[in-house]
Amino acid sequence: MARGGVNKALVSKARETLISRGENPSIDAIRVELGNTGSKSTIHRYLREIEEEASGRPDDEALLSQPIKELVGRLASTLKQEAQAVIDENHVRHQNQVQSLMTRTKELEDTLAADKKTLEEKESRLQNALAELAASKVAEEALKAKVTQASQTEEKLQALLAERQTQIESLEEKHCHNRESMEHYRTSVKDQRDQDQRKHEQHNQQLQAEIRTLNQTLSVKQTDITQLNKDNGRFAAELSATQKDTSILESEQRRLIARLESKAEEADSLKAQVSELKGQSAELDKLKILNEELQTWKAEASVSIGKLEAEVSFKTGMMNRLLEEKKLNVGDQLALEQGSPIIP
User: Fold this and answer.
1) 73-334, which class in CATH?
2) Model pLDDT for residues 113-132, shown as the tens digit of each residue
3) Which partner from 113, 261, 270, 319 sits 20 to 30 angstroms from 148, CA to CA?
4) Contact 239, 158 (CB under 8 A)
């Protein structure tokens, strides 16, 4: 659609449009952009005026005086150095804090590992001591049973020995009575021999038979006495051996009781050490909580540093914009002093 007239503003707008698209703002291109409206001479005249105005813009950096340029450069450099110094200082402080926290964390972890190892060793020693204590108790019970059995055996042997002694004494008493009876009988026979020879002769065989019987009985009793004496000696030897075994068992019992008391004291000591280690473990748990809080603080510090860097970047951009505005203000002032029109 053709337009009804071309002015300087339309030509300037068409030129800026072509430049923004990266095209060469020639006369023909501007005329096509304007819809093939306007003469080439008019477009050429407007285009020349626009170029002249653009070449003489007061915001050109070349129009600024050297002292102003140096002042602006020093201000920008100083602002940049101060911002970088703040960033470097915060970064160094943050790195030191992180290194300190990492060192402290490593120390706490090493301490925790050492305490855990010590606790495991103490618990192992406690378990071994308790196992030995239980074994000692079992051995003591078995020893007590053996001692009781040995005591019962000794009592039985003592009773049997007393019974044998009683039997020996009874047999000896009977033997004495038999001897006395025999002597008395011999005396009676001798007294009556002269008075009653015939009766004595009649009863001679009977008496001889009785004597033989008594002799046989005496021989049997002597054999029983000999056997009882042998049994008495054997029982005495068994009693001595039993008493010796009883003494050994009692000594072993005393030794086991002393060892049991020692193990009980060691178990009490280990229990106290375990209790102390549990307290240290609780303290380590507190240190872990403190470490977690320090890690949280570290994360918050990183966020704060990020915010600070963003703030510094924002202030740097703002400073740059202020410098640009100062340049524009200086250009406007120069334009006013030279009497040139200010193009917005």
Assistant:
1) mainly alpha
2) 998 899 999 988 899 989 98
3) 261
4) yes
